[in-house]
Amino acid sequence: MKKLKIEGVESIPSGHRDKDKSDRATTEQVLDPNTRRILFKMINSGIVSEVNGTISTGKEANVYHGLAASEDDSSPDVHVAIKVYKTSILVFKDREKYVTGEFRFRKGFNKSDNRAMVKLWAEKEMRNLKRIHSVGIPSPEPLYLRRHVLGMTFIGDSRGKAAPRLKDVEFMDENPVARWRSVYLDVLAYMRIMLQQCKLVHADLSEYNILFHKNKPFIIDVSQSVEGDHPRSLDFLRMDIKNVNDFFRRQGVLVLSDRSTFNFITR
Ligand code: ADP
Ligand code: MN
What we know:
Shape: globular
Helix content: 25-40%
Distance between the termini: 52 Å
Number of helices: 6
Bound molecules: adenosine-5'-diphosphate, manganese (II) ion
Number of strands: 10
Strand order of the largest sheet: 1-2-3-4-6-5
Largest sheet: 6 strands, mixed
Strand content: 15-25%
């Protein structure tokens, strides 16, 4: 059952010395030899039985579909999502504003800083997911973390089809606006709980980072989320509110003003 089959990547022989090709693998496909090693280790240690399809290739990370081996052979494997953060230097520039404290960007930072940086993003995502998942906000449950590779529960159907992002959802009912309104109210509630109970501001919330599954919005992509006491947390919150209100307004929902939304979430 051991499999590591990811389109366009499995053909790269591990350990080869072609500098040009391995650079390409690092920047474009994430699966540099180091990452392959981690994924194979996960397979060999029985954490997952296989890693196969690509769910998403993004600027900062790729997300793969995998199957988690069940304890006993009789029950079926469960689907997992495996997020692999990219280690290329270009993607970090945008992220500086989320980072406070000593882990600031330095001029001329090198490959090992780079690695440390992605490891930090993965750790942040793990910690933040734990926090929002544990208070009952629909979200993936983090399962394991190994350097820049994060395994979490898969949000999608039993055949391995990932749930759509909110931006791709279309309600075919008689009254789609009523459906959207109910999703809107859920999202507002989650934002409030996230701030008040988890002490977190998502900081990249939009219809791109909310999945729709089992009739509920699921919050994802929280590696850049900041603590409520981050100096810019309220700026990020205002940005999140604007994105959310703009999106639901476009769906025909009579949304709160951004200011009332802010008051609702913060008070
Ligand atoms: P980024 O935006 O940094 O590339 P995301 O965490 O937003 O990373 O993941 C990218 C995409 O992968 C999401 O839009 C979603 O479609 C899919 N995805 C991420 N996590 C899961 C998950 N746990 N279950 C199903 N699909 C997921
Ligand atoms: Mn995203």
